[in-house]
Design brief:
The structure is a single chain. The protein is of the alpha/beta class. It has two domains: 152 residues, HAD superfamily/HAD-like (Rossmann fold), CATH 3.40.50; 100 residues, Hypothetical Protein, Haloacid Dehalogenase-like Hydrolase, Chain: A, domain 2, CATH 3.30.1240.10. 31% of the residues lie in helices and 24% in strands. It is built from nine helices and 14 strands. Helix 1 links the parallel strand 1 and strand 2.
């Protein structure tokens, strides 16, 4: 195994959003042994760069669930963005459903003043959350909506029927409101393939670690897919093995020891 690809929240970071020293040390020990380490996350680059730097990642990381591959220095290597017609059509759907729109861009998340209450929740993706949405910008990786769960479910059903080539990912905010993220079909599985190809590594030589539903495609694509111990059954069922590590950190150290004996 030559490449370790890590999810960030719930995997690389502990429950407080911090890196454990043992995991930082393990990542650097892997690199010294010739094992490449990188990240594949739903976060935006502006919320991920610091993690990559602490771990000593070289080359690209995959962010926005695979919509972008960006070098740790900020150089864009790949981008899959929503075209103008899709952005504007989804803006209309959101308005018709009585929901609040949000734009996920390369730089950060753009919201309306009505969505200020979600600023802390959105900061999980990036610290760059600002009021003011420009629907003409071309670096939109996802258009999202937040509000009544029933309305969110209805919007998701509509998008699934009208635009089956897109991904409509539904979850809940900390306050229990519905949240829908619509993006292109790029996912963590395709991102893993790009990260491996960039480094001259076959998929069979990759190890992927994750804990949530958006990690399933990555765990399936990897030569060895490992799930965190707090992951739900839909995730653990597709993994090759389940780690002992959980929300208190230690996953990188555990994988380094079990897979590479480091």
């Amino acid at each position: 195994m030559k490449l370790l690809v890590l999810d960030v929240d719930g995997t690389t970071l502990d429950h407080t959003g911090e890196l454990q020293d043992e995991d930082v040390a393990a990542a650097h020990a892997l690199a010294a042994a010739g094992v490449q380490v990188t990240l594949c996350t739903g976060r935006l680059f502006t919320g991920t760069q610091w993690v990559a730097r602490r771990l000593g990642v070289q080359g690209s990381i995959a962010v926005a669930n695979g919509a972008e591959l960006v070098d740790v220095d900020g150089t864009l290597r790949y981008g899959a963005y929503l075209d103008r017609d899709t952005r504007l059509a989804h803006r209309e759907r959101i308005a018709e459903a009585g929901l609040e729109p949000l734009l996920f861009t390369s730089e950060g998340i753009r919201i309306s003043s009505a969505s200020e209450r979600h600023r802390k929740y959105l900061s999980v993706w990036t610290p760059d959350v600002a009021v003011g949405m420009d629907w003409e910008r071309e670096d939109v990786v996802a258009v999202s909506a937040v509000g009544d769960p029933g309305a969110i479910d209805g919007l998701r059903a509509r998008v699934t029927v009208e635009r089956p080539e897109l991904q409509a990912f539904r979850f809940a905010t900390w306050q229990g409101e519905g949240f829908l993220e619509v993006r292109r079909a790029d996912d963590k599985g395709s991102a893993l393939a790009r990260l491996a190809e960039e480094r001259g590594v076959s998929l069979a030589e990759t190890v992927a670690v994750g804990d949530w539903l958006n990690d399933i495609s990555m765990l399936r694509a990897a030569g060895l897919g490992l799930a965190m111990n707090h992951a739900e059954e839909r995730v653990t069922s597709v993994a090759d093995s389940v780690l002992e590590s959980g929300l208190h950190g230690g996953a990188i150290a555990e994988v380094a020891e079990k897979v590479w004996g480091i």
